[in-house]
Write a structure and sequence with these properties.
With 145 residues, the protein is an alpha/beta fold. It is 24% helix and 39% strand. The chain has 3 helices and 8 strands, in the order βββαββαβαββ. Strands 1, 2, 3, 6, 7 and 8 form a 6-stranded mixed sheet that branches. Strands 4-5 form a two-stranded antiparallel ribbon. α3 links the parallel β6 and β7. The termini are close together.
């Protein structure tokens, strides 16, 4: 699984002019599922997201996790992150999971996120989404498992 996490002061996802997920201070995570991914990978990815220390402590150092600050988590499925972009001028989606597998693992990730963190919102798998965010810092990292 691949994710881009961004530390945000606010983020939201809109589908058909309706806000379906919105957080204040926290992490926006764009998530892609690849062919080889399993539920174990989703478990590990969620733990990394929740515990990754990207929020400032009292000394201004990135030393606090999402759990430490009790921040919001907005999980957004984004299969394009799984693209192979090594050559040519058009992405290849060969590494990406099938839509069925991608949806199944994203739903699993949603379930475990709700079980493990009190403030979680979601994008919609397969939908045309508009994502709006204010990146705080900016602070952006790529996480893989």
């Amino acid at each position: 699984m691949i994710t881009i996490i961004q530390r945000v002061t606010t983020a939201k996802v809109t589908v058909n002019n309706q806000d379906i997920g919105k957080i204040s201070t926290g992490i926006l995570a764009l998530v892609a599922v690849e062919k080889k991914d399993t539920e174990k990978d989703a478990d590990r990815l969620l733990e990394r997201i929740l515990n990754y220390r990207i929020f400032s402590d009292a000394d201004g150092k990135m030393n606090l996790s999402l759990r430490d600050i009790n921040g919001g988590l907005l999980l957004v499925p984004q299969f394009t992150l799984a693209a192979d972009t090594k050559s040519g001028n058009r992405p290849s989606f060969t590494p990406a999971a099938t839509p069925e597998k991608g949806q199944q693992l994203f739903q699993y990730l949603q379930h475990i996120a709700q079980t493990n963190h009190p403030n979680v919102q979601f994008g919609q798998f397969g939908a045309d989404m508009q994502v709006c965010l204010v990146n705080d810092g900016p602070v952006t990292f790529t996480l893989t498992v």
